[in-house]
Amino acid sequence: MSSKRLTFPASEDAIRELRAGDEVLVDGHIIGIRDRTQIRIFDQGVEPPLDLNGAFLLHTAPNVRKVAEGKYEKMCIGTTTSARMVRFTEPLGREYGVRAICGKGGLPDEAIEPMQRLGMVYFAIVGGAAALETTQIEEIEEVYWEELMPECLWKFRVKDFGPLWVGIDSHGNSMYRDVQTEATKRLEGILAGL
Amino acid sequence: MSTITATDIEAAVEDAAAHLYVWALKDIPQDLRDALADAATRETSVPGQRVLQTILKNVQVADNEKNLVCQDTGIAVYTCRVGEHFPLHPARIYAALKTGTERATVEHPLRSNAVHTITRENTGPNTGYRLPIVHWEFIPDWDGLDVKCVPKGSGSENMSFLKMCVPADGVKGIKQFVLESIVGAGGKPCPPGIVGVGIGGSADYAMYLAKEAIARPIGTRNADPHVAALEEELFGLLNETGIGPMGLGGDVTVLQCHIEHADTHMTLNPVAVNYQCWAARRASAHVNANGDVEYDREF
Q1: What is each CA distance from B97 to B14, B18, B212, B271, in whole angstroms?
Q2: Distance between CA B216 and CA B197 in Å, rounded?
Q3: How many domains, in total, are found in chain A?
Q4: Does the distance separating the beta carbons of A75 and B109 come in below 8 Å?
Q5: Could you tell me which residues are beta bridge partners of residue B247?
Q6: Which residue has better confidence, B3 or B299?
Q7: Which of A14, A59, A61, B137 has its CA 20 to 30 A from that of B153?
Q8: pLDDT in tens, B79-130
Q9: Cα–Cα distance between A64 and A42 in angstroms, integer?
């Protein structure tokens, strides 16, 4: 099990070096995004107001305090369940060059092929560990689409963000698929013994 | 001697609700802390161990920084046990709980999660039409009020399942449905948490019982020995599935399995599953007839 460090935005080459199961810490800039943000981009056809090339997207809707016009102070920032947003994976990579999606609970198997084809990864974070995650976010640098509060587009500057695990890599591997395969096999045995 | 008015009592209940909501979000109960620490000693997978260490560190950071344990401030769910002689009508208790929830949201401030279910527009202060959700129980020959606040996160609430098993499915059908539900949920509900199961009653009541089950302290068992034995058995079997902490694989898939039951129709065998994430937040208060509030009173 290797432990790696990566700065975002990141290149395809850097992403291709990661393997499912790797533990990773992230620095640089990450973008907070959620259900309504992606519904606006893809279902309502509104172009995102910032460059997502090489981006790390975090599935989040933070607790914040407004300190000035367009300026927010972090209060508690954590990560939501990713599976709800799986259908946006392919277009995020193909149309906008997104390199990493980070959330909790994993993405279903339909994300494996586009991540392999487009050079993307899924990072697993510890869901619910928001108090810790908040300490790793240095600043909320930008916020777009404030009318969707709290499901806006957020730009965070982070340091030592993690631990994260490569849940799905860009080589067709998924920790979630492996765990489900094993659990399904074990379940058959358990049910046979009832 | 000053006279306690209904207005004074309503203000006390409102203050209690505001305090309980924030307190539940910041300070998870001791039984849960113990269960998480115990899980960390049992887990043998590397990512599973790292996840549990990170969870324990997070609980510590929340204590030190007086921050929320999890960013999901949930949907505010209260359970009230109202004594027959408690000097405030439940209609006013509900109003106080609603105002208390709103105050906590605005004053802290907390993220508001409440939206209109069709338009998805945010309603603002974590309240709205039929929000907060309050469950009621009425107690004869008593003049007190117990309030429990369970802010319920969506990651775990989305992993709720109902099956109308038939009598011929028996207890085996119940076990199978619970096991399949938790394997299917995988890492989505933030395992390892508390699996709440409601059996019997009707479709809606089974789900209500499952929600009651997740709010029980870890270490408690159902008083009915048949049901307690089923809790023990499912707890063991669920941890044999290998889903592990955050669904990354491992030995600890659930911290506990709690079951609540009701007698049912001869042709019914309903099973409801309601998951509670590892951040199983709950806080309680007792309000007496004078409006004095005592916190951390389990019921």
Answers
A1: 6, 8, 19, 30
A2: 12
A3: 1
A4: yes
A5: none
A6: B3
A7: B137
A8: 999 999 999 999 999 999 999 999 999 999 999 999 999 999 999 899 999 9
A9: 26
Q: Which residues in chain B belong to E strands, given as ranges? A: 75-83, 133-139, 145-152, 160-165, 193-200, 254-262, 269-276, 283-287, 293-295
Q: Which residues of B touch A81 (CB under 8 A)?
A: 154-155, 158, 188
Q: Which residue of A has its CA nearest to B64?
A: A131
Closest CB from B46, B61, B108 relative to A132: B61
Q: With 70 as the cut, is the pLDDT of residue B299 above it?
A: no
| pLDDT value, residue B296 | 82
Nearest-by-Cβ selection for B249 from A76, A175, A190: A175
- Residue A27's nearest CA partner among A161, A135, A130, A188 is A161
**Per-residue pLDDT tens over the stretch A100-122:** 999 999 999 999 999 999 999 99
Q: Does residue B183 have a pLDDT over 90? A: yes
What is the rounded distance in angstroms from the CA atom of residue B214 to the CA atom of residue B197?
A: 8
User: What span, in angstroms and rounded, lies between the C-alpha atoms of A79 and A82?
Assistant: 9
The two structure tokens encoding residue B239: 């941890």
Nearest to A181 by CA among B235, B155, B189, B241: B241
Pairing of strands B293-295, B283-287: antiparallel
Domain extent, residue A8, equals 3-192
Two structure tokens written together for A93: 């990579």
- Is the model's pLDDT at B22 over the cut of 80? yes
Closest-approach residue (CA) in chain A for B27 = A131
Put simply, the answer to whether A128 touches B278 (Cβ < 8 Å) is: yes
Q: What are phi and psi of A157, to 5 degrees?
A: -100, 125
* pLDDT reported for residue B2: 66
Average of per-residue pLDDT across A173-194: 98
Mean pLDDT (whole number) for A72-99: 97
If pLDDT is split at 50, 70 and 90, which confidence band does B4 have?
confident
Sign of the dihedral through C-alpha A108, A110, A112, A114: negative
User: pLDDT of B221-248, one tens digit each?
Assistant: 999 999 999 999 999 999 999 999 999 9
Q: Which distant-in-sequence residues (6+ apart) come within 8 Å of A69 by Cβ?
A: none
**Segments making up each domain of chain B, as ranges:** 6-26+69-153+281-295, 155-276
Interchain CB distance below 8 Å, A128 and B111 = no
Please, what sign has the CA dihedral across residues A6, A12, A15, A16? negative
What CATH number is associated with residue A95?
3.20.130.10
What is the rounded distance in angstroms from the CA atom of residue B185 to the CA atom of residue B274?
11
CA distance A144 to A153: 5
For residue A3, the model assigns a pLDDT of 80
Answer whether B6-26+69-153+281-295 and B155-276 agree in fold.
Answer: yes
The hierarchical CATH code for the domain B155-276 is 3.30.1330
DSSP character at residue B115: B
Class of the domain covering B6-26+69-153+281-295: alpha beta
B122 chain-A contacts, CB cut-off 8 A: 149-150
